[in-house]
Amino acid sequence: MSSNPDAIPLRRTRSRRSIFREDFDSQHSTHYPDTLNQPATTTTPPSPTPRDLRQSAAAHEFVFGGPGQPKPRRLGLWHFLISHVSIIAALVVGIICVVVSIVYTSNLGKRVLECPDWVRECPAADEWTVTHLGTIQGVMTLVYTIGMFALGYVALAFAETAVWAVLQKQSFTLKVLDAFVSATRGKIVAVPAAVLAVRSAIAGIVLLCAVVVSLMPFVGMPLVGWAYTPGLVGKRVESGYVPGGGITEVFVQANPPNSVLAGAMVEYYSWANDPSAEPMPEYRGWYIDRKTLRGRGDFTAQAVKLQTSISCAPRSLLPENSGENYFFTNMTKTGDNSDQLPQINQDKVWVHKTPHLAVWVDEFSFLSKQQTRATLIFAAFNGTIDGGATTKVNFGNLENVSSIACDINMTAADDILTVGTNPPSVEDLPLLSSIDTLTLPSSASQDTHLNEFLLWFAVAPVLTAPSVYGNQPSFLNFSATGLPIPYTKLPSDEEDYPTPEANTWTIAGLTTFVYLSIGAVVQSTLSQTGPEPITLTTNVDLLSFLSNRTFLLLFPPLLTFTILIFFMIYTTMLHAKHSIPVLRLFSLPELLKSSQTQFLRDIAGVDAAKGYLPAHDLAKTRVRFGVERTGMGLNMMGSVGSLGEEGEEGEGVLGLIDGNTIREGSLGSEELEGDKRSGSKSSVRREKNGRESRGERRRERERLRRDGDVKKVPGITYI
Q: Disordered: where is this region (predicted)?
């Protein structure tokens, strides 16, 4: 023993807590048998005393309390980033992945997946991209998701640092604290338990932002799929169009007919059987190539407009008494138009001696230089026309004829054609057709060549069917549409005669027949050799990706990055406000470091003796983050305070302390925000319960030391 006389008094002045700790540590050991089944005992070193803790922490300025002591040097944002290089790496990787996926998707959205042949300089995607579009979508989804998870990792790391500030504002049980920390790390299943424990605004903000960040990668996945779903997108494109058109001959009605337009017959037969096959029917009155312009999209151009008016009335026919199957016409009547060519038209027409609908031209006139009128006769032999005049005839088996006369007026004028609702704006409108550029009948005079051109459209119904045996065209109602269909069969006997239903007509149906015939004649006269193609600028819907969907991919990363910046600023401000010395994660090493308060060491020591049971009792312990005050007297042990307090005797240990105590210190001396219940009475009651629980724990430790139960604890016993 030392001869120093002061040694004994020093030992006598040691506190009862120090004596208990030495006795407790001397018995706190673990026993593990080695591979030779020989007992081996490992005794842990004695746990440090509060003085040892203060001396060890003094080198890092982590000692709190004591008058005149300088405040510890804070380790803030830059130290945190330097200490965690993985966070910087994740931020860089996240930004790169998100930018690459969005830029590639945006550039692909400017391309067309299917480009028509008529488009000049079409911005089409390459064939490999179109073929492997599904694979490209999968790769871009993977890259985008990796980027979102990387950005979320950084944002959640800062959310985790905010847990220390949350523990300053409210207390948690260890079980709920584990759920709250898990939620800030992106564990969605822990969110309900964490939400139920929120008692402060800080905790709510941190938890809400963490949940939003955790969900953003999953929100981004369907957005990528939505961005890669192709649709029809309006594109401004250029194409070529051959303008002009016309007819070089004049119309002549003769027996047999010699004014034939084979193209008009083909077009009419196709459209009469299937009206949907007619291109752009709403623009039937324009002298344009509707077959070529169909699918070109919206545009504006100059073209010739053909205005048509039809007026029908019943007319009785006067057949020859000789029983011949012909009727006289007025095609040789000149009237006031001395420039007409009456000598080339015959004064009568021949018809079939079978039940059918016959059509011929009775007369025509030129009303002005741009207007022509023709009168057509529609006669149903052994049939009926609703509203027609019935006349007795004697043509073989034909007994009667129902007929009407229709005046068809045609007018031509240059006009502006607008197709669609969104045509592109161009400086000079393209010229599709013009009266000055049309090819007109050369045999007509200069004053009537436009009238002769319009006459072809006024007599269009007689041009839509071929002649059989030199007679005028015949039609029957054989189609499901109710429109006249050319009839070229000559029956050999009465059994081959058409049914009455096939020879029943209405004026409305015949009017539709006239309009459809005019459209067929227009289409057939446009396939002429014209000048050089002009450039037609149109807005057309092409299969592509929608650019506005690509912009939606910016929402998840921008929101995540905004929350990340918010967490960086908010957490730094909270650490400065509450004088928290280190910006750090809530990791296992940091948790162990902050668990070395006497309060937790005592509770953990008691619960460690029950190694055969789960830590249910320890999980119910309520803690918060603060300073545990220690001093020379027992009255200082277990006193807690806020970070940054001054003016109190003794020093303290920073860590997780009793959450049932009243918060003291420089931040207003108010109660813990999350622990407010019903005023000062509840606070006093919690303080009293805290003292009672500490007394119970002290008695439990004495019992363990006396009974020697500590030696039965498996695992590390250094607490």
A: 1-53, 665-719
Read off the pLDDT of residues 362-381 as tens digits, 9 standing for 90 and up: 999 999 999 999 999 999 99
Higher pLDDT, 401 or 616: 401
What average pLDDT score do residues 484-491 get?
79
Do residues 605 and 130 make contact, with C-beta atoms less than 8 angstroms apart?
no
Q: pLDDT digits over 499-540, tens only?
A: 767 889 999 999 999 999 999 999 999 865 566 889 999 999
Closest CA to 611 of 710, 718, 700: 710
Q: Residue 103 has what DSSP assignment?
A: H
The label of the residue with tokens 């009785």 reads 316
The answer to whether 251 and 548 are in contact (CB under 8 A) is no
**Which pLDDT score is estimated for 536?**
93
Question: pTM of the full predicted structure?
Answer: 0.65
What whole-number distance in Å separates Cα of residue 190 and Cα of residue 635? 40
DSSP 8-class letter at 240: E
Show the DSSP H helices in 354-484 as ranges: 449-458
What is the model's pLDDT at position 496? Answer: 58
393 confidence band (pLDDT: 50, 70, 90) = confident
Q: To which residue do tokens 């004649």 refer? A: 521
Q: Tell me the C-alpha to C-alpha distance, in Å, between residue 545 and each of 3, 108, 224, 235, 537.
A: 93, 7, 11, 11, 22
The gap from C-alpha 248 to its chain's centroid, in whole angstroms, comes to 56
Q: In what order do the strands lie in the sheet with 231-241?
A: 112-114, 534-544, 231-241, 119-120
What are 611-639's pLDDT values in tens digits?
788 888 888 888 888 877 654 322 333 34
Q: What is the maximum alpha-carbon separation in the chain?
A: 166
Contact by Cβ (8 Å): 718, 592 = no
322 or 154, greater pLDDT: 154
Structural element, H or E, at residue 307: strand 299-314
Distance CA 329, CA 339 (A): 19
CA-to-CA distance for 144 and 75, rounded, in angstroms?
34
Whole-angstrom Cα distance, residue 219 to residue 546? Answer: 19
The DSSP result for 148-184, as a single string, is HHHHHHHHHHHHHHHHHHHHHHS-EEHHHHHHHHHHH
CA distance 206 to 155: 11
Looking at this protein, which amino acid is placed at residue 631?
G
Helix, strand or coil, per DSSP, at residue 213: helix
